[in-house]
Each structure stands twice: as C-alpha cells, then as structure tokens.
Amino acid sequence: MNAPPEQPALARKGSWLRTVRAIAWSLIGLRRGSEYRQDVENLNPLHIIAVGLVAIFLLVIGLIGLVHWIV
C-alpha cells in the first residue's frame, strides 16, 4: 500500500531518446496504455515540450517540401 514518493516533474531524468520515441508513437497514434503510464512517470515535461515542438516543426517542413515537390 505504501507508494514510493513521487519526484517533482521537472526533476525526472527521462532520456531524450525515450522522449523522442514516445512523441513519435504519439504523433501517429499508436501507444499502449502501459507505455503511456510509464512515460507519465518517467519523462521530463520540458523534454516532451521541446521534442514535440521540434517534431511538429519537422512535420510541417516535410509537408511543405512534399507539396513543392509535387507541384
């Protein structure tokens, strides 16, 4: 019944690679519930925001490039 004490969200030591992987799976919509819970417990929110912004930027640049290539 005793749960381990939670770390403050900004003090978590989530790796950048794990964050990138979590964001990539989330963007395409394929994420299991157990993996989502692990991400919530382990990843640093600032890493998630930074990687998410970079991923969205790259997605938009990729789509613009695709449109220019087609047209």
Notable characteristics:
71 residues; single chain; 69% helix; 3 helices; mainly alpha; elongated; 0% strand
Report on the structure:
- The N and C termini lie far apart (61 Å).
- This protein has helices spanning 16-28, 33-42, 45-70.
- It is elongated, with a radius of gyration of 16 Å.
- It has 3 helices and no strands.
- The mean pLDDT is 77.
Helix content: 55-70%
Strand content: under 5%
H/E series, N to C? HHH
In angstroms, what separates the terminal alpha carbons? 61 Å
Structural class call reads mainly alpha
Instruction: Supply the number of helical segments.
Output: 3
Structure described in brief:
The protein is mainly alpha-helical and 71 residues long.
Q: What is the element layout, followed by pairings?
A:
Blueprint: H1 16-28, H2 33-42, H3 45-70
